[in-house]
Structures are given as structure tokens and as C-alpha cells.
What does this fold into?
Amino acid sequence: MKYPQGMCTLFLAAFILLLFPLLLFAASPNTPHGHTEAIFIAQIVALILLGRLIGELMARIGQPVIMGQLIAGVILGPSVFGAFLPELQHSLFPSAPEQKAMLNAVSQLGILMILLLTGMETDLELVRNSRRAALSVSIAGIAIPFVCGIVLGEHMPVDLLPNPTQRFVTSLFLGTALSISSVKIVAILVGDLGFLRRKVGQVIVASAIIDDTLGWIIMSVVFGLALHDGVDVPTLARSIFGTLVFLAVSLTIGRRIVFLLIRWANDKFQSELPVIAMILIITGVMALITNAIGVHTILGAFVAGILIGQSPILTGHIEQQLRGLIVALFMPVFFGMAGLSADFRSLASPEMLYLTLAIIAIASIGKFTGALLGGRIGGLSVAESLAVGCGMNARGSTEIIIATFGLTMGVLSQSLFTAIVTMAVVTTLTMPPMLRWAFKRLPLRQDERDRLEREKAEAQGFISNLERLLVTVDASPSGQLASHLVGLLAGARGMPATALHLDYEAKDNAPEGKAQAERTVSVMSNAAASGGQAAESLSNDGTADPKVDVAIQVAEPTTSDDAIAAEAKKGYGVLIIGREPSSEGREFHSQITRSAVAFGGPVAIISARGVHRESSIDEPLNILVPITGTNISRQGAELAIALAQGTHGRVTALYVASSSASQTQQWVSRWSTRPAATDAGDAAVQDIVGMGKIYGVEVHGLVRSHGAAQNAILREANGSDFNLVVMGVSPRPGEQLVFGDVAADLLERAECSIVFFSSESPAVATALQQPQDNQGIDNG
It folds into this structure.
């Protein structure tokens, strides 16, 4: 990788220019004694500034930013800054206890925040998909270096131990520090190399997730031993039992409680950033719980992160806001503090140098050998196991946190702390080139290529990126159908849904209204369960998706428009409307228009007809999707496939060619065996067929040439056994909600149920009064 000439000089000059006033203030004899807050701010700014600059340099050479933050601390500490300018370094980082306490408090809080973020980034689905290989790699990769670390600690010279009576606890700290990979470092490096979605990359990251999880459980128990000055059997048994109970409750009942708390904060509070406040409260409470059962607070913070990260209501912008605070403040301060605590001058001692080299060798060889052996046991090839062994050898943040706690608790000496930090730096910096070398030996297989293409297409979809659904219904057949379809979609995709039942009169507390609302909940819940089961059986990898809680909430509005507008502020991806009367001839009912405008975002309007007014709505869906090749019609097809997935239904993609198209294009076939597309119609249908494969839904292709598009669509919809038409549409500007002539004809003349789906906001179209072209099925 090439960089502009003088890049390093530029960064160095920027550092000196920006840091000089801080150093001048800290070193000034006129600085009043007791102005600890000023020095504290100078320390924070120095750590953030230098950490950012060196972290940027590390990122540009393909290394983790965390290493730059650690190196920044080393430079500011006794190893570099203190060696050349000891008085200036001491002025900026004085040894006064009250001064150290201020920075240490931020560092300790930073540990909890870093573990919260690590837990939020823990992808349990990744572990599930690669569980056999990942579990064997993790266990073998931990066991070998862990045992070697304990043996090394038991034979270590006494003068290197801070407390000889706690040798075994020190050995446990050393064994853990040598055996655990850092999931944060591993995930970043594997992602940067472009292997995160490859099979080997998933095994590496999944193994690192298990490593981190087991590591924090082990360390919580070891911390308990350190606090009690040795092995106390009753205390140890209490810690282990308490940890198991905590994990069992957290991953079952706790998961639901966390989701409900986050949703409650998001929906009930009107002040700024209520969800972030709730996340911090949950983290603190769970940290206190683990502290109360005799293990360390870090386990509570890590498990809290896992549960929070799984909450389906956690939107991307909320996660980014929280991440920004942690990455910008807490991480550079914590890792900078770790660098400040390391004194590399101790490596000048031959005894200490040999011990450090031995620790690096044991950590590297032990982890590589264990991961390689575990990969073979888990069914990986030699080349894949070799890559896994290389990828698991990055330590970084996890070891530094462990070593920091060991130093703080007095079970690691300053020299041992420095040796572990050196090991973490060396193994992390050497991992990327080793992994690149190993990945070159792994060509992309066809099945991997197909899977990566499917995942890329899914990531670009509209429906797959929705996070929360809002449905407004009444007790009519259209309301019941909308409730059923929303339940299918929520269950198949694991999205929470909120229902606004508009027949419920809160002021009268009418029993009939309550019963209707309860029926809505029942319909949605049953459909969600059915959709989830169907999605499991259609999963591409043959494994079941994890169960996802679908939240059903029935509001009690006084006026429907106000209720929709108020609920929309809580954050929803789309509004689904199922109410009657839904139309007045070729136009939507005025209430439908008002509801769509009140929401101000993507909308789906459902009208129940045919069998959905006469018989059960639980029958499999046979869906007709008119397409044009445009993005709008493609989104309609995506919705149709998602609904079919929830009922083992069928989808037919209909492309209506112009009347001048060749008559040879009038045919019906299964497009899965169709060769490369020969015209626009072929290409459009093949695109939808490919989308269906992503979700395991078979899509049939249908191309017609019949003059007016609406006549061809109505002929197929009314003359075949379709029970639902799903159509992607664009709103027209005007006082009423209008989707064009084709949609108007379907609204008036279609005999089967209809879903009109628009990813554009009707309110925007109405307000701006912008003219649009009348081209294609989606806009008439």
C-alpha cells in the first residue's frame, strides 16, 4: 500500500503542535497545586490525540487501531517519554494518588463499556452455523496454552512474583492471558482481509467469540480467587454455581426482559437518547449482579452486551451513537493507560527478556497448535485448519484487560504485566501477514461463491433491512388479513410488530373492542409462530434460525391519525394498513390517505377479497407479483417472497411486455432452468427468481404481451388460482393517495386480495407536488 510522501512527518508535526500547549501547561511552575481537573483533562486529551494519530497510522498499514492506542500509551509512559524527559512526563502524569484515581476511574468505566460493545458485536448466529468446528477450535486452542501458562507460572522465579503465596492465582492469570483470543481484533482483521463471510473466516470469528465468552467466565472465577487470597473451595463453588445460574437466567428470561426494557424506554420517553440511558443502566445492573455473586463485573457487562445486541428494536443509529462514545473516549483512554503502565525498560534484563520470549513462544505455538488440532477434529481440511491456527493467534484487547486487572489486584508484577502486553502486541501485529499467507492457499469454492452472492443480494434488500413493523387494523376481513400477513413477516424475519387496533374505544372500555383487539393479537401471534417455523424449514444452510421474540402491542388511540403520528415517532420501517372501507371505486378511502400521510414513511395497503373474505386466512399464499424491472417493483417482489416464505406459498412474477414485443415471448416456465436472459422481460423475471433462491422460495416466471398492462394483470389475477396480488407502487402528488392508473384499475376490478407496497413516503409526494413519469406497471 502506498502513502503520500511525508505522511509520517505530517502526523508527527500535528502531534507536537497540538500536544505542546498541554505539556507546557502541565510543566509550568505556575500551575496551582490541586488543579487536578486541569491535569486530568490534559491527560485525556493527550491519550485521545496521540491514540488517534498512531491508530490512524496503524489502520493505514493494515493493523488494528487498538494497537495504535496502546503504543500511544507506551510513548507517553516511562518507556519513551519518561526515559527522555522524565520531569515533563511526571508533570503530565504525576504519581499523586488522587490524580491517578481520576484517570483510573475513566479507565475502569472504559473496561465495562468496551466489554459492553464487545458483547453487542458478538454474533451468536455465527457460532451456531459453525458450532462444531468453532467449539473444537476454541476448546483445543484454549486448553494447550492455558496448561502451558500454568506450568510456566508454577516454575517462575520467586522474585518475579508480586506475592509468592498467590503463585497459583498468578499462574491462572498467566494461563488465561496466554490462551484467549480477542474477538474484537480477530473480527476486525478477518473483515479487513475480506474473509468475514467465508467459511474459514466464520469459523475463526466464531471460535474467537467462544474464546472470549469462556475467557470472561474463567476470569470472573479467577478474580474471585484473587479477592479471597487463594483457593477457597466454598467460595469457588459459590462463584461457579452463581455464574452458571446467572448465564442460564440471562440467556432465557433476561433476554426477554432486556428487550422489553429497551422497547419501553424507546416508546415511553420523550427526552433525548432514552435507549442509550437504558442500555447503560442495564449494563450497570448486570455488572452489580455478577459482583454480588462473587465474580467480576466484567462478566455482567459482557453478557449485557450480548443481550442488548440481540434486541430486535436496537436500531443502527442508536448503536452507532453508543459506539461513538466508546470508541472515541473510553477505548483510547483504557488502552493508553495500559501502555502507560508498561515499562519496557525492564526487558533490558536478560532474565526478563528470556521470560518474555518464552511467553510469546508459548502463546503463539500453543494457540496455533491447539487451533490447528481443533480444526482437524472439527472437520476442516489441513489448509483450512492452518488458516484458523494463524487467525486465532491475535490477542490484543482481551489480554490487555486481563493483565490490567491482574496488575491492579496485585497478582501480576510490573514485569509480568509488561511481558503480557508485549506478547499481546507481538501476536497481534504478526497475525495479519500470517493470515494473508494462509488465505492465499484457500481458493473460493463454488458453494461459497453462491452463498456470498446470496448474502450480498439480501443485504441490499429493503424488507430484509426493516427493524420494526407498525400495523393499523380494524375488525374487518382486511384488518384480519393485514394482521395475519404482518405476523408472517415478523415471524419469518424476526421483527417486532406493533398493532394499532382502531375499533377499540379506550374511553368506554368496551368489552367488544377488547375482544376484537385480543383477536388481533391472537391472529398476529399465531401467524408469527407459523412464519418462524416455515422460515426455519426453508433456511438455505439446512439449520434452523434462532427463535426471535415478536412483540405485539395493541394501542388505545382516541383518534387514529393522532395515534399513528405519535407511534411513528418511536421508529418504524413501514406502516401496514388493513381497514375498511379501503376504497371508493378507483380511489382509496380518505381515511387510508390520512393514515398514510400521518405516518410519513413507507406504507403497505391491504384489501381482503375473494377467499380471504369467505374462508380461513391460514391457507398457503399463491401470490402474483407484477414486475417491470424497476427498483420499486423489485421491492414489491421482495415483500411477496417474504410472505410466501412464511406459509410455504408460491410466487409468480409477471412481466407484461409492450404490444409490439415478439409473440415468442408468450410462455410460462420454471425459470430455474432458463438460460441467460435474452431480453428485458427475461432479465427482470430472472432477477426475481434469484431473489427467491435467497429465501428458499421457488418463483415461476410469466411473460405476457397484451397491450394495456392492467388488462394482462387482471386477466391472470382473476382467471387463475391466485389469492393475493402484491404490487410495488409509487405515490403520485395530489390531495388523495394515488398510485397510477394500473393500481387504480386493480383496486376497482381485482377479485383476489391486494397488497400495494410503496417504499416512498406519500406525505412527501403530496407536499412537494412533483410530477412523475407514467411509465411501467409500478406507476401506471
Summary: The first strand starts at residue 469 and ends at 473.
